[in-house]
Structures
1.
Amino acid sequence: MSKRQNQYYLLSLGCAKNTVDSESMAQLLDQAGMRGVGDPRSAEVLIVNTCGFIGPAKTESINALQELANLKSSDQYLIAAGCLSQRYGDTLAQEVQGLDGIIGTRRWMDIVDVVQRLRKRKHPEPLYHLPTDAVTVGTDERGAARVSVQGASAYLKISDGCRRPCAFCAIPKIKGTLVSRPMQAILDEARMLRDQGVQEIILIAQDSTDYGSDWGMKNGLAQLLNEMVKAVPDLPWIRIMYAYPGYVTDELIETMATHQQIVNYLDIPLQHADRRTLLRMRRPANVDWVYSTLTKMREAMPDLTIRTTFIVGYPGETDEEFENLVQFVKDIQFDRVGTFTYSYEIGTPSATLPDQVDDEVKQARQDHLMAVQQKISLQRNQSQVGRILDVLIEGHAAVTDEDGNPTGSTISLGRSYRDAPEIDGYVMVEGEAPIGEIVPVRITGAMLYDLVGTVDLAGPTIIQPGQIFGAGDLNPD
C-alpha cells in the first residue's frame, strides 16, 4: 500500500462561504477514514475548492490546479471542486491538463463517493460530477456541520444559493437558487461551537436577510437570531454578514438592538448609489431607503459599525453617476468600505451591456473613492480613542524597530465588534493578552484601518445616543 493511501490535501480558495464548504468536505473525508495532510506530495487525493466569481479569482484557481497537476504522481488524484468547477466544469479539463475529477458546488457532500469512483476508474478521462440539484440541506448534508472554526471565531452557514437577479453576478448560476438550512440544525451547530469554546459566531450566506423565504417565512433572519440568543445565551458575539439592501427590516433592527450578543455591526453590500447605475445592475435602486434605514439603525444602535462594498466602472457609469457615489459615501460616513473595479463576466447580463468603461478610468475611480473613504475611516477610528472596547485576542507579534530588528517587546492582535475577520482592521494591544479570550482594551491611538490600545480592567464604556457621530457629521474634504 502506498504511503499516500487514504491521505488528502485540501486547498480552499475564495470567500468564507467556500471555506465552510471545504471544512464540510474535510469532515466527510475524515469520517470515511481518510486523514488531511499539509503537504500535497504526501496525499493520495488532491482537492482544490476553487473560486470562480470574478476573473482574478478564476486565474488564481486555475494556476493552483495546474501547479498541483504538474506536481502529482500516477498514484495521486487531482479533484477540482467549488465555484469554478460548477461554472466551467465542461471546459475546465481543457484548461488544466491532469485533472482527474470535477465536482460542483451543489454536490460537495458527494466528495467521498467521487474519491471512491476515482479509485475504481479504468479510463484516463476526468470524472465529472456536476448535478444541477441544489438541495444541500438536512439529511443531504450527510451529517457534516456547516461551520468553519478559525481560532476563537467560527463561520456558520445558514443557507446556500441566491435568488437575486443582479446583472453582474454569476452566483445564482453557480450555486443555484436559495436553499435555507433547517433552523434546528443551525441552532445545534451554534451549541456545538459554544461548547468548543468559540467566542464569536459569524452567520454567512449568499444573502443572509433572505433566510427562510423559500419556506414562506417573514423576517426569517430576525426569527433565527431570536432563537439563537436563547440557544446560546452565554456566547459573547454573534455577527451578521451579507445583508441585502431593502431587506433590513424594522424587526431585524429591533432584534439587533435588543440583544447584546448580536454585535452592532452590519455588512450590507450596496454596490452603488446612483439610481441609474443600480437599475442597470438590477439591484434595489431606492437610495432614499438606504439613507432612512441606516439613519434608523444608528438611532437604535448609536455605536453601529457599517461595512459595505461598491463596484466602480460598471458599464455605462458616467462621471456624474460616479460623483453621486462619491457624495453618497461622504454623506453616509461608512466605517468600512471595499471598492472593486467592474469585472467582465461571460454569461452574465452585464456582459452584453454597451458602454464598457476603460480599465484606466475604472482604476482612477477606484483610487479616488478609496482616498475619500480613507479620510472617513481615519476619523471614524479616531472617534474611538478613549473608549474601552471588548477585544477578541487572536495572536501575538514581536515588535520591531524601523530597521526590522526585534525590540524585545510583544503586542497582541485582536478584533473588536467593529472588525470582521480577514476583511476589517485589527486592534493592536500592548503586551501579551490571552489568545482566544475577550479582554477590555482602552483605545489610545488610531490609524487608517487599525486601532492601538492597552488592556484596561475597568470594563467597557457605555455609549449613549449622540456620542458616536452619524451620517453627515464629518466632512472629509
2.
Amino acid sequence: MAVQNAGFRPLLFNEFAKRACETLAAKADRVPEGGRPWIPEPGQRPPLVGGDVQNLDMSYLGEAGVDVLAGGPPCQPFSLGGIAKGDEDKRNMFPQMFRAIRQIQPKAVICENVRGLLRQSFAPYFEYILRELELPFEEREPRSTWQEHDATLRERIGQADADPKKRYVVRSIPVNAADYGVPQVRHRVIIVAFRSDLAVDIDAFEDSVKRTEYSESALIRSMLGLGEDDYWARHPGVPDHVKQRVLARLPKTPPMDDGKKPWRTLRDAIVGACAGGEALPAITDDLLDRTEHGLGGYTDHIGWPDARIYDGHTPNELDRPAKTVKAGVHGVPGGESVVLLDERVPDKSAPDGWTYKHRYMTVRETARVMTFPDNWKLKGPRGEQMRQLGNAVPVLLGEVFARSVAAALDKAEGAK
C-alpha cells in the first residue's frame, strides 16, 4: 500500500500467510495453484501468488523494467522476540530477496526488518547482507559458509569491472516510526538500494529520509502549552486528573524548540487526528463481548474482554505514541495491546486511592496505529488480524521511503 500510494503500479504480490493472502485478495487476483502470474496492464489488478517465495519464479519480470522490489524478509531470525538464530534459521529469507533481485534486476530495492539486525551479535552477518545486496549476482556456492562468501564479496567489491546493472549502491537507515508521524514507537531498519548504472545521488536520498518532521520534544512542548500546537486544546474532553498525571511525568525543564511537529499519540489515532478522519466510537464495558456491533459503521471495532496487566506487558497510554504493535507473540493476542483509559475507580490499595480502567485495543484502533485506512479490511479471527498488523510496515512510514525512492529515480533519470 505504501509503495502504491507513492505512485508505483504493483505488478506482483507474494505472501506466505494464509489469512494475509485472504486480505490481499481484495486488491489482487489470485494465481491458481500451478498457474503462472502475468504482467498486469495499467488499471488491471496485480496477480497474487500465495505460498512459499522459494517456489516462485520471478524471471518473467526481468524484461518488464521493474522500478522497485519491496519486501520484508521474515524477521524472526533476528528479532528479540524470536529465537535469534540469524543466518542458521531456516526462516531467513534474505537469500530469496537476493534471488529476486537477480531475476528482476529492479532499479531500486526497499527492505524493512527489525532493529535486531543491528545488534552487536549480528553485526558481521548484517554487514554481509549489505555486501550481498551490493553484489547480488555474486551467488553463494551451495556448500560454502556465509563467511567464505563474504570474503569473496569483499574482494569483488574492491574491483571495478562489475557490470553497473548488476551492482547496487546500498544504505541502511535505522528508524523510529514515531519520527515519521506514525502514532507508535516502532524501531526498525530500512535498507534501500539503487542500481549503480542509474547514478542516483544516494547521499541526497539518505538526507531526505533522515529529515524527519516529528519529535518527542515537540510533543512535550505542546503538552506544556508552548508554541502554536496545544495538545490539550486538540483534546478538550480529557479529564483534569489525566492531564495532571501526564504533566507530572514531563521534564521540569522544557526541551528546546526543534521546529518539528509533535509525535502523534494513541489518542490522536483514536480520535482521527492523524488521517483527518472521525473519532472511533467509545468501547464501553457493556460492549466487551466479542461482538461486531457495527459501531459508527466501522468494522473490526470490537470490544474484547478479560484484558490483563502483568509484568512484561505494561499497557499503552493514550497520551503517548502506542507501543510497538506485535504479531501475537508472548501469549497475548496482538502482544501488548492493552490500553489505559481515562476512567478510574476507587482503589484503597493504590498509592493515590485510584486505579485506571483498561481494556484491549480493538483491531480497528490497532490498524489506525499502523496507519492503515479505515476501509482496509483484515481477514480471519482477531488473533490473525492482529498478527497481520504486527507483521506489517506502518503505511505512512513506508510511504515516506517509497516517495523518496521515486523522487531519487525521477531525478536520476531526468539528469540523463
3.
Amino acid sequence: MRIVQVTPYFHPHLGGVESHVMNISQELDRRGHALTVVTSSDDGDAREEWIGGLRVLRSRSFLTLFQTPVTPTMARDIRGVEADLYHAHTPSPLPAYFAARATGTTGVPLLITYHCDAEIRGPWGPPVVGLYRRILEAYTLKRAAGIITTTRTYAATSRAVWDQDTMTIPNPVDIARFHPDVPPGDIRARHGIPEDGSLVLFVGRLVPHKGTEYLLRAMLGLPVHLLLVGTGPREALLRKMATLPALEGRVHFAGRVSSRELPQYYAACDLSVLPSTSRLEAFGIAALEAMASGKPVIVSDVPGVRELIEEGQEGLRVDPIDAEDIAAKVRTLVEDEGLRKQMGRRARETVERNFSLVSVVDRLETFYERTHSTMVKG
C-alpha cells in the first residue's frame, strides 16, 4: 500500500508526535508498504530527502504561528504524491487541514490521528482556539474517513471528538530498543551522580505543560538526584530553581540526548516521573519508554496519561501541580526497592502486552486496509 503520513514536524525535530510517526512509518516500511512523509521545513526551504526507506517531502514554511508551521504549499505537495491512503496527525492544526483540502480532490481516504486538543496560552488563546475548532478543525474531521485517538479517556473528554466515532490505537514503543537488559554505561558518572544514590528521571521537552517546576519543588525535601533529559524554554527557570541550597548539586541537566543513548538513561535511573499539567499531554511516550525499560513510573492523573498504568501496579498516579503529592509518591518508591522492582516487572509486561511497536502497527495496518477497502467498494 502507498501511504502518506502528514505531520507538522518530523526528524530531527524532537517530540511525541515526531517519534510516533517515525516509529510507525519505519515499521510499515519494513512490512513492504511505500511510505512518504510530508512535513514542514525547519529552515524554510522545500526539499526532498530519504531517511532510510522513508521518502520525506518538506514543504516550504513561511512562518510559525502559535507553534504551528504555516506551509501553504503543503496541500499541493500532498496532492503530488500518488497514494492509496493518507494519514494526518494533529495538532498542530494546519498540516492536517491541508491534508483534508488535498484529499478532497483525490478520492483517496484520509485518516486523522487526533493526538491532543489544541491549546494556546494567554488572553488570545481561547478565542483563537475556538475559531480554529469551529472552522478548520470541523472541516478536517468531517473530511476524515476515520479518526484515531490514542486513549479512550482522552477521546471521551475532548470537546472535538467526544461525539465522533473514533478508533483507539495507542502510541507504540520499541521494546527491543528499550529493554531491562540495556546497560546504563557511564551515565551516572558523566553527570556526577553517585552510583549508590537514588536517581529520578524526567524525559521530555522543558515546556510549561510538562510540569517540571513542580517536580523540582517535590525534590526539595527528598534525598535523591533528579536528571532532566531535554531542552526548551523552561530550562532557564529550572536552572535557576536548581541553584536553591536545598537542591544544589542534586539536579542535573542532560540537554538533548541522542536516540542511541536514550535507553541508557532509563537504565541508569530508579524511577521515571511525568508530572504533566495540561491536556497537551495526551499520552506520554516517555512513560512507555521507562516502562519498557523495566522501571516504575509516576504519572499525572489526567485523561490519557492515566490509562498507561493501573494504580499501584506499574507505578503511581499523582495529582497535577501538587508537589507534595509528587514528593510523597517518589518517597514511597525510593524507600522500597522491592516495590520498585515489582512494579518495573509489571510495567515491562504491560508494555509487551499492549504497546509494542509490532502489535500496535498490526492494529493500525488492519485499520488502514479496512478503510481503503471500504472506500474502494464505495
